[in-house]
Amino acid sequence: MREIPRRKLMLATVLAGCALSLGVPGEAVAQPAVTHPSAEVLVLHGTTCAQPIVDPQIGEIPPLKHNCWKVLDKRNLALTAGAPSLMPLANGRTFQVAYNGASAEKPPRFKVTASISKPDGVGFNQLADFTAEPGKKFHVGGFAYQNGSLVLAIRILP
């Protein structure tokens, strides 16, 4: 068996010690990546018209009397606890969605509060508190707008 010169052995030991001291601390490696859900929001405009038509992006239509539906806006809003996300609406008001954390259920659901700005622009009126199933769409709204209704179709994406 060949003997390793003492100098090379010391150099290898020093390099190994440096590599270990520069490595990432065990805590950082053990923590999972933080992911935040988002809210996919479709602003829908429903009217009653002679020739029924529904924009294919909508999927299941809201349970209102209208037979014509189109998408006016589509956005993905980041959801972070303690920081509501805002979106302007076609009727001049502002939609707000607040993330209230994940439920303890398995698989987890997402707790959200949907609100709309007051007509005078000062503060928000709560529309609903939801414990949303990931990927499942729900509707809020029904605000009068241009001879029809504005409805928000919301889907929480993990």
What would you say this structure looks like, in words?
It is a single chain. With 158 residues, the protein is mainly β. The chain has one domain. It is 14% helix and 46% strand. The protein has two helices and nine strands; from the N terminus they run ααβββββββββ. The strands form two sheets. The chain has a five-stranded mixed sheet, with no helix packed on it. A four-stranded antiparallel sheet has the order 4-5-6-7, with no helix packed on it. Strand 4 (85-88) and strand 5 (94-102) form a beta hairpin. The protein is globular. It starts with 5 loop residues before the first helix and ends with a strand.
Overall mean pLDDT: 84
What is the spatial order of strands in the main beta sheet? 2-3-1-9-8
> Beta-sheet strand percentage?
over 45%
Runs in which pLDDT lies below 50 for 5 or more consecutive residues are 8-34
In DSSP terms, counting alpha (H) and pi (I) runs of 4 or more, how many helices?
2
SSE arrangement, N to C: HHEEEEEEEEE
* Overall number of domains: 1
Indicate the overall shape. globular
- Sheet bearing the most strands, described? 5 strands, mixed
Query: Structural class, please?
Result: mainly beta
Radius of gyration: 26 Å
Q: Which range best describes the helical content: under 10%, 10-25%, 25-40%, 40-55%, 55-70% or over 70%?
A: 10-25%
Q: How widely separated are the two ends?
A: 58 Å
Can you count the beta strands? 9
